[in-house]
Amino acid sequence: MDLSLTPEQEAFGATVRAWLKTNIPHEWKSIGSSEIPRMEQYEFLRRWQRTLFDAGFIGLTWPKEYGGRGFTFMEELILQQEMALAKAPPILNVLGVGMAGPTIVAWGTEEQKKRYPAKILSCEEIWCQGYSEPNAGSDLASLQTRAVKDGEYWVINGQKVWTSFAHVSEYMMLLARTDPNVPKHKGITYFLLDMKLPGVTVKPLRQITGEAEFNEVFFDNVRVHESQVLGGVNNGWAVGLTTLMYERLTLGFGLQVRLRIALEGLIDLARRMEKSGRVVTKDPVMRQKLAQLWIDTECLKYTGARAITKLLRGEMPGPEASTGKMAWVDTHQRLQELAMEIEGPYSQLWKGSDWAVEGGVWAQSFLRSRANSIEGGTTEIQKNIIAERLLGLPKD
Amino acid sequence: MDFGFSPEQEMLRATARKFLENECTSGFVRARMEEPAGVTDEFWAKLAEQGWLGLVYPEEHGGSGLGFVDLTVLMEEMGRVVMPGPFFSTVLLGGLAIREAGSPAQKKEWLARIAAGRGRTTLAWTEPSARWDAAGVTCAAREDKGGFVLNGTKLFVLDAHLADVLVVVARTGEGKTPEEGVSLFLVPNGTRGVEVKLLPTMDQTRKLCEVSFKDASVPAEAMMGVSGKVWPTLARVVERATVALCAEMCGGAQRVLDMTTDYAKIRVAFGKPIGTYQGVKHKAADMLVDVENAKSLTYYAAWAVDENAPEAALAASMAKAYVTDAYRKVAGAGIQLHGGIGFTWEHDLHLYFKRAKSSEFTFGDATYHRERVAQLINL
Ligand SMILES: Cc1cc2nc3c(=O)[nH]c(=O)nc-3n(C[C@H](O)[C@H](O)[C@H](O)COP(=O)(O)OP(=O)(O)OC[C@H]3O[C@@H](n4cnc5c(N)ncnc54)[C@H](O)[C@@H]3O)c2cc1C
Ligand SMILES: Cc1cc2nc3c(=O)[nH]c(=O)nc-3n(C[C@H](O)[C@H](O)[C@H](O)COP(=O)(O)OP(=O)(O)OC[C@H]3O[C@@H](n4cnc5c(N)ncnc54)[C@H](O)[C@@H]3O)c2cc1C
Q1: What's the pTM value of the predicted model, to 2 decimals?
Q2: Is A137 touching ligand 1 by the criterion CB < 6 Å?
Q3: Which is the CATH superfamily of the domain at A241-390?
């Protein structure tokens, strides 16, 4: 066991640190829960991600020939840590970088690998994830969006829902049913879908925060060329899932980092707010809650480090890799609840009020955090997976 | 970076698991619960033979010179079988205090004896006030005729009735802070004026004593470290013992999870194994998250104390706060998921449940350590 870094890794960290110091735009102010890019920040974040790409500080573990750096998880981890310490802005193309890119690198044809990953990293092309449907959420394999072969093309009809970023995306990771006559997991194909194709309609859905960050997407005889199939016809379930463990780790590390940023923001808030005439950080009950959040946030880091160690050693990640999402959700939702408690009656005020604390940003991130236990697989489903796959309890 | 165990450490784990499964069975534990000794001479000799009593002591004193990460592996295995007896008090409290604060002569004699299984000790620290801070040390050591005279009462002293020598925390003076004036003494058990009383405990695998000092005279050489200035050393000893305790707790929690999942696979209700039901599944998943997180923080703390990292104190408190809650929750859930059988004396679950409780209040509970975390992160 050794948590120290090699001289090369230290040097890499120093390079990142120095770069961040001069390159984080002055207008950026990290407050609230900054793990999800907010709409009004999109243009700013697009430029930021481009800056990161030009400097070579994104896609570290991706192969060089496809726009990455060919580094190990260690450099990725160091980078993420430095980003957290510097309170750097998040990246905009999260689903592209976290999911589409690695999936394409793992399953794509040479042509696909040359075409897409680099533009994902540079944020020239934003990606969305077209998995969920009105009748297929947790039970994703029940999805009904149909793809029917017509010559060299697949004709898509159906609907997706809750599709984050669809309204600003160039491409979609689309799961569609290509064979309705086999068991449900076996008739699904993974498509790389150009959102500008005729027949694709995106309708923003207003969510709990009042913003429209996710959408409905309708497909009306959309013709997709067969070269846009990723990983083979009827192999979509495997394609969609194989990289999941890996993704959960990288995304997981990013999440831990954003959590740390949010926690420091919360502590700043607690230092400035008062309760019953006493600074919040001097209140014994609040100190307990803040300390617990600190512990839980640190814990995510070390649980992640254990999982990454296994990967670096070439072993399969163990239980510690699967608990991350659940633990993160629990910690983050508690953090947001605490922000409301710290603000007290002020938490009721929304942006637009001069009295709102920090422009009402915490109220907004508090509401947004409700989605954490739903998006990317609900907590109930995570628990089923842990109980059945890790503990070996019988399936229903 | 490598945040995993080495092949040697995995080997130590395998050896310890096998040894303890054979030697420290539930029957053995229960027999020890019923008697004051908490251990047999035969078992103790075997621990010495394995080299575990001197694992973290320097080789020059008969130890193996290994670190806390190695010890973590061993402690997890000991926690797994709720090992009774004075291992913790001897090796990690009294012994560690001697390693950190003892004079060369004290170390030479006692570390070698402990490692060889021929000497036992403990730390007489807390008092009826049940405080973990320096202000809690009121037991007085007054200079007298070139030596010291001790007066006061120590409570919650682990295994004092089995110790050959006691490491006693006493106050030789007052200073600007409560930390000033705290001193350590190595006091042979049986010294005139020292009375040890074994107390009945809820967790019978842990023997607690009251130790009272009534004008107990010790020579000047009994002092360990610099008079009035040992608090930081004591804090370091306790920090390390806390990390070892966390490891033991992790091992116990893991065992409860294992027992519970095994049971959930075979116990049938409503025509199916209870593990089929989500009420059981989700609780088991929560247990797993608690156990894994507890390990992450404990391993980190073990590494930090081994490295003498500046964040070691913070790491130890983070671990103790988390692991305390985790073990308590996991042990409780284990009983719950076993139904009526989990509530019986015959089933081993209560041994873990009680160990979780006694460990909770050893070296500060979760609330105490969260406040320490708050202080250490400058809240
Ligand atoms: C903010 C946000 C962004 C999202 N972005 C995307 C996106 O970009 N792309 C995308 O494809 N999807 C996205 N989703 C959709 C998300 O993946 C689904 O909402 C999620 O998988 C749950 O599906 P559902 O909403 O249909 O709920 P349902 O599956 O209908 O679940 C309803 C409730 O029943 C529970 N439940 C269901 N099955 C079980 C079971 N077997 N055991 C126990 N409990 C069960 C669930 O846990 C939940 O509490 C997003 C969702 C949100 C909230
Ligand atoms: C102190 C004490 C006194 C008692 N006194 C009496 C008495 O006087 N008379 C008497 O007749 N009985 C008595 N009982 C027995 C008590 O009613 C049973 O222990 C209880 O009903 C649970 O049954 P079980 O022990 O067989 O556990 P099980 O039924 O085997 O349950 C084991 C676990 O599985 C869970 N479980 C089982 N089925 C499901 C399901 N479908 N969905 C989700 N979870 C499930 C349970 O909640 C439990 O956590 C007593 C028990 C105790 C502890």
Answers
A1: 0.95
A2: yes
A3: Butyryl-CoA Dehydrogenase, subunit A, domain 3 (1.20.140.10)
